[in-house]
Amino acid sequence: MSATAETVDQVKDLTADKYKYGFSTEIEMEFAPKGLNEDIVRFISAKKEEPEWMLEWRLKAFRHWQTMEAPNWAKVGYPEIDYQDIYYYAAPKQAGDGPKSLDEVDPELLKTYEKLGIPLKEQELLAGVVAVDAVFDSVSVATTYKAKLTEMGVIFCSISEAVREYPELVKKYLGSVVPYSDNYFATLNCAVFTDGSFVYVPKGLRCPMELSTYFRINAENTGQFERTLIIADEGAYVSYLEGCTAPQRDENQLHAAVVELVTLDNAEIKYSTVQNWYPGDENGKGGIYNFVTKRGACRGANSKISWTQVETGSAITWKYPSCILQGDNSVGEFYSVAITNNAQQADTGTKMIHLGKNTRSTIISKGISAGKADNTYRGLVKVMPKAEGARNFTQCDSLLIGDRCGAHTVPYIESRNPSARVEHEATTSKISDDQLFYCMQRGLSAEDAVGVIVNGFCKEVMKNLPMEFAVEAQKLIGISLEGSVG
Amino acid sequence: MSLLKIENLHATIDDKEILKGINLEMGPGEIHAIMGPNGSGKSTLSYVLAGRDGYEVTEGSVTFKGKDLLELEADERANEGIFLAFQYPVEIPGVAGMTFLRESYNAKLRHHGEPEADAMQFLKMVRAKAKTLNMNDDMLKRPVNVGFSGGEKKRNEILQMAVLEPSLAILDETDSGLDIDALKLVSEGVNALRNEGRSMLIITHYQRLLNHIQPDFVHVLAHGKIQRSGGKELALELEANGYADFAEEAA
Ligand SMILES: Nc1ncnc2c1ncn2[C@@H]1O[C@H](COP(=O)(O)OP(=O)(O)O)[C@@H](O)[C@H]1O
Ligand SMILES: [Mg+2]
Asked: What distance in angstroms lies between residue B241's CA and the mean position of ligand 2's atoms?
């Protein structure tokens, strides 16, 4: 048997166990009744002790959602979702509402996060320290370094807490980038969002810590609808990381998040995601449906929003982190690695909407497909009439491993200003037998060889990740491609 | 005991027989040259020894350090001490030379149950070796072989060999495409790696490389078989007469 064929067999045996975050936590949970109706929306709002305006907004979204139809333009296929067969609220019993101090958090939960490599404890404030908001199913269970951050004027808390404690900020910005009527999944999120993170960085402050949220879906048949809102006031800077995992289950689970970013004059937000939801097994059974709306508005002049994503998990990914470049000279960036293996499907990309003068955007997308997976880059670059001197550079590279997978590139370009310059480059390549043999001749196993080659292919994107994340992401790329050679 | 023993080796690519009964025995520290016309199967022999997919051994055996080499996968053979300097080194975009070397080096250490190398010490060691091959830091940062000139690629192969310290190095036409200065540099690099524990199989079409790297034995490969073996004077004879003597009837 050839080296690669044998490796594939060995790895196949392992596939079932390879998703090391596939365990579930035994903990007493409280659920809302299954299904979706106005009462459920009220139930969630009441659980969160929300003010009336928040409930009204949710109900408005819910009523609008009932008039909408699920989109079908993405190049993904899945059976129709029964929205009445999902729990919209699941919370550890003792969690009550809002995170507590770390000593009060259920040890079972602390153990879960430790197992996931996210220790929820505070150390001395050193460079490279990351503050974490941990969201477990529908609630935030802990937020670290809160006191330290508050001292500096940074607000970092769960969105539920923000709705109660900082209503003016929330009212002003929530739904201002992704309106409640935006799209099917975003609108659903507006109605039933349960938790997520809220960040406000005050004028002129460079937030000295990386902030991060770690999402964990644990409960069965539960949708996760988190909502994140990040505001960088004038001259502020923040780097934010998002990580996610879910137990290995045979049923598909829905995750429909909304993330909104706002930068005012001279502000910058760097948003990095390593998405590692359970992808389903090699036959496509189980896994997360990841239908996410992420959008940032560069409201102020000279402001910048940079999205970096490494998408390795989920059965289906449907996601287009976008930038609305309103302020003059504002900058939008999108760096993406999307890996699909086995039966995974990803339709991902970005939208760069140029409104202000001399706005600039860069898109670097690296799609990797293996197994019989499908991977589509879908992007829109739109230059509006007033965006004098706007510039975009787009590069989309696809890498195929084996001959049963697919890569597709769908770039839309709409330029309504003649002074704009929009450039697009695209390549498709394969990992060659020559490359594999060369690496193996130097002692790398077939799997490691693929990992090295793919990491090289993704280099331009990976180098944008914060150090602590980059190492993890590199390993993840290796893991998610296991069994792909042959 | 011999380091490598090839007996009656037959191999096919796509059902076409290329190697038709090779016999060759190499002792530790010996340098053997294999010469032969284009298309005679020299690269094929190197690939079969290194364990490349698609090359099927139909008959014969290869013993390396007393073990059945043909049982091992390509990466295992590499980690057991077989190194192939490629005729056409392969580009790996985005992977820095230093990273690639470290991955390879650590793979070998892991294979032998040893802990991975200390990053700083490894860096120092590689830099020192690169210097003797006239390779600067910049070349180690660049992606493996991407945009390298022919000479740079070959030097990079020798650097990898110097770092991985194989017990059997197979050099496939390492001289091809090199100008005289580059040839000297590469030969010096190879000579510096000669020692009593390391054997080399030097594949070449021309004898000029053998002016720089003196072989102990010379073999002529034609039509998938070793047609003649001798000392280094055989290389000179070939230089004078060409491979005409080994035309079809000799097969
Ligand atoms: N992939 C292949 N498929 C079919 N025939 C091949 C392949 N590779 C090499 N050959 C043939 O095998 C023979 C030996 O090639 P090779 O080993 O490269 O010779 P050399 O290195 O001595 O020039 C040639 O006739 C060549 O055409
Ligand atoms: Mg050859």
From this structure: 21
Per-residue pLDDT 10s for chain A (486 aa) are 343 333 334 333 333 345 666 666 666 667 777 888 999 899 889 988 999 999 999 999 999 999 998 877 767 677 778 888 888 887 766 555 445 566 666 666 666 666 656 555 555 444 445 666 766 665 665 666 777 888 889 998 889 889 999 999 999 999 999 999 999 999 999 999 988 889 999 999 998 888 888 766 666 666 778 899 999 999 999 999 887 665 555 666 778 899 999 999 999 999 998 877 777 777 767 777 888 899 999 999 999 999 998 888 777 888 899 999 999 999 999 999 888 887 778 788 899 999 999 999 999 999 888 888 888 888 999 999 999 999 999 999 999 887 888 888 888 999 999 999 999 999 988 888 899 999 999 999 998 998 899 889 988 888 888 776 777 777 777 777 776 665
Q: Which helix (H) or strand (E) holds A148?
A: helix A146-152
For residues A398-433, one letter each, b for 16 or more C-beta atoms within 10 angstroms of the residue's C-beta and e for the rest, the string is: bbbbbeebbbbbebeeebeeeebebeeeeeeeebee
With tokens 């879910």, the residue in question is: A246
Which of B52, B103, B160 lies at the smallest CB-CB distance from A444? B103
CA distance A4 to chain B (A): 8
CA–CA separation, B115 and A425 (whole Å): 43
Asked if A239 and A211 count as a contact pair (C-beta separation under 8 A), the reply is yes
What residues of chain B lie within 8 A of the CB of A441, using their CB? 50, 52, 74-75, 78, 83-84, 86
For the whole model, what pTM was predicted?
A: 0.82
Is A452 in contact with B92 (Cβ distance < 8 A)?
yes
Q: Among partner residues A435, A443, A448, which is closest to B108 by beta-carbon distance?
A: A443
Residue A242 β-bridge partners: A213, A273
Q: How far apart are CA A454 and CA A447, in angstroms?
A: 11
Domain locations along chain A: 3-480
Q: Tell me, what's the ipTM?
A: 0.96
Which structure tokens are listed for A429?
A: 């390549």
| CB pair distance less than 8 Å for B53 and A4 | yes
Mutation probe of ligand 1 site: the residue of B40, B53, B170 with most atoms within 8 A of C-beta: B40
Q: Which domains does chain B have, with CATH numbers?
A: 4-249 (3.40.50.300)
Residue partners of B245: CB distance under 8 A and separation at least 6: none
Both tokens of B144, joined, read 């493996």
Count of positions (residues) in chain A: 486
Structure letter (DSSP) for residue A37: S
